[in-house]
Amino acid sequence: MEVPISGEQIDLVAGDYTATIASVGASLRTLRFRDRDLVVPFSADELRPSFRGATLAPWPNRIVDGRYTFDGAEQQLPLTEPARGNALHGLVAWLDFEVVDRTASSVVLSATIAPQLGYPHRVAVVVSYTLGEAGLETEVEGTHLGAGVAPWGASAHPYLLAGPGPVDDWTLIVPADTVLETAGERLLPAGSHPIDSVRGGELDFRSARSIGDTFVDHAYTDVHRDDSGFATVTVTNRAGDAGVALVWDAACEWVQIHTADRPSPEPSRIGLAVEPMTCAPDAFNSGDGLVRLESGASHAASWRIHAL
Questions:
Q1: pLDDT tens figures, 189-208
Q2: 129 vs 47, 81, 144, 186, 279, CA distance in Å?
Q3: Does the reported pTM lie above 0.85?
Q4: Residue 50, SS3 per DSSP
């Protein structure tokens, strides 16, 4: 049987939820609650649009110029965002993961990052998806298989769907006090600032408000958490009677929000990217939240998407 472009397809079912995982990038291809999509889907035989639903490791977001120094060694990564001259979203998004365990409602996938130019480390990446009555739980774990220390960060790239229409029609809550401002067309990090001091408070969604025509492609931190250490972003439809939430654990100190703006003629603003991140953009340079994976050590982060 011919394998679809997006890889092996794993269908999950639990109660009112269904999901499909594609093995390329251990990607979340579909997630539905009853009769509605909770994430922007793509077809099995479609080359995954950009990073939609992909696993991001060993770094999320951008490494400026693809260049960094780690423990005294200078490294140069391929520029996978050539128009902006950055290394974007890690090394596993286009790896074909192997299914190592599965049930009707769960799957575990594994791939290994081989030592390479710019990242001379061997790291096993295990992605677990579990569908249940409370939604879809995802865990990403990295284990350093080589000697020395490896820099590590992880995230995922789902585009949430609150309902029909563009993101302009939706209401958003992002419980964060600080935002990382960006500079220029390259979206380079330009310093973290109190949320109410940036762009006249335009990026402040601590209280529920309409997204409108606001452009967002920013990382937020200093997030508000519940007593168990979890933070939540919610987005609801125009009527306010349905939506979707993404909840993440204490391993993720940052969350990237992006309104999926695209140049014409591409479909624009069709979903809201919500990316819980273990580290800041360009953390391989700043060290902000960067995990130092010792030989044999592991690091895991998790998040959950559920219907409102």
A1: 999 999 999 999 999 999 99
A2: 22, 28, 21, 33, 22
A3: yes
A4: coil
